[in-house]
Amino acid sequence: xxxxxxxxxxxxxxxxxxxxxxxxxxxxxxxxxxxxxxxxxxxxxxxxxxxxxxxxxxxxxxxxxxxxxxxxxxxxxxxxxxxxxxxxxxxxxxxxxxxxxxxxxxxxxxxxxxxxxxxxxxxxxxxxxxxxxxxxxxxxxxxxxxxxxxxxxxxxxxxxxxxxxxxxxxxxxxxxxxxxxxxxxxxxxxxxxxxxxxxxxxxxxxxxxxxxxxxxxxxxxxxxxxxxxxxxxxxxxxxxxxxxxxxxxxxxxxxxxxxxxxxxxxxxxxxxxxxxxxxxxxxxxxxxxxxxxxxxxxxxxxxxxxxxxxxxxxxxxxxxxxxxxxxxxxxxxxxxxxxxxxxxxxxxxxxxxxxxxxxxxxxxxxxxxxxxxxxxxxxxxxxxxxxxxxxxxxxxxxxxxxxxxxxxxxxxxxxxxxxxxxxxxxxxxxxxxxxxxxxxxxxxxxxxxxxxxxxxxxxxxxxxxxx
Length: 467
What we know:
- By secondary structure, this protein is mainly alpha-helical.
- It has helices spanning about 40-90, 95-100, 110-125, 130-140, 145-155, 155-175, 180-190, 195-200, 220-230, 255-270, 270-285, 290-320, 330-365, 370-390, 395-405, 405-425, 430-450, and strands at about 205-210, 215, 245-250.
- A three-stranded antiparallel beta sheet has the order 1-2-3.
- Helix 1 packs antiparallel against helix 11.
């Protein structure tokens, strides 16, 4: 016989407590089922709710703080990650390096610098005064009139001008021909390790660091020009020395620090981008509001890419101001800088567009007024298109209804496919990003129309069997 004080039965009755299943009370309190003993009083329930709210608020604050720290680290690392990836890609990939420096061979400003340097070197080694002195002596020994002998001595200037014209014409033919571009690309491909040597300060390869000066070795080009001039009958070209075979690109007192920074970026080039992406994803996952944090992270990284572009523009200006016009003409210096850094700027612009598009997508999926209007407009358009398809006899049936039942999954698959396409794309440009974005929007629209064309599910209960 069960006592009236049995805890298993003392909470049951007609007061709205729990029944025999020991479940929750209708008023939200804990019933007197197994293990409880009694129902919570109003004061106990209020204290329980207060402690629960406090724990929840504390938990959200911790998540916000953690996400903020992760976001800050991500934003600080983002520009370094882009620069490190560029250094790593340029240093380790021979084809990429040759592709980077190849345009310099066809740049008119750079070609003119090489032409002027080689022409000056040839003319400098032609002893025009010896030629005029010999001619004067021959005329004097032959009994020529004094006026003729004196005139021969005045041929120094015109003769030097003729020599320079002939040399300049032959050098220009070599430098502007396909031979120069082939020699240029071949020597850079064979001397790809020169970039590594420049980064480490070793004095080897075509691109080298000497003290606080960056120089480009054009020795193979000098050999080619010298041989072409000799073959053309200009024997004096053989006097071109082997000692002056470099072109100074720029001079900087901070070369040692730059080399240290580049070595560090080369080491971190593989892992720093991965770490940055992981930290960004962790910041979004940690935050209480994933969509809001995705929006903030995307805008933050976009801002850092804009800062990097501004920094590159400032460095370009500083570089051009630091190069003396006598060492390298401004147009040639600008061409060299722009050529070497063009892939870094292209990558930065691409990431800027990618994260701006991500921020826009995150906003459009939110509760903002504009976002709601855009979604309502898109939903109305796809619904009307789907209704038109059904009216035309193109009902998508059950597949369409399944798509309509799982809109988040279908949108996630389409967006994931677009992101995967950009990841697998070999160095996507801004145009590639725009193309993928257009294709993703078109795919989302097609999926929505197919879902709308499925129509409502048939009413099974309203169907009657004949007879």
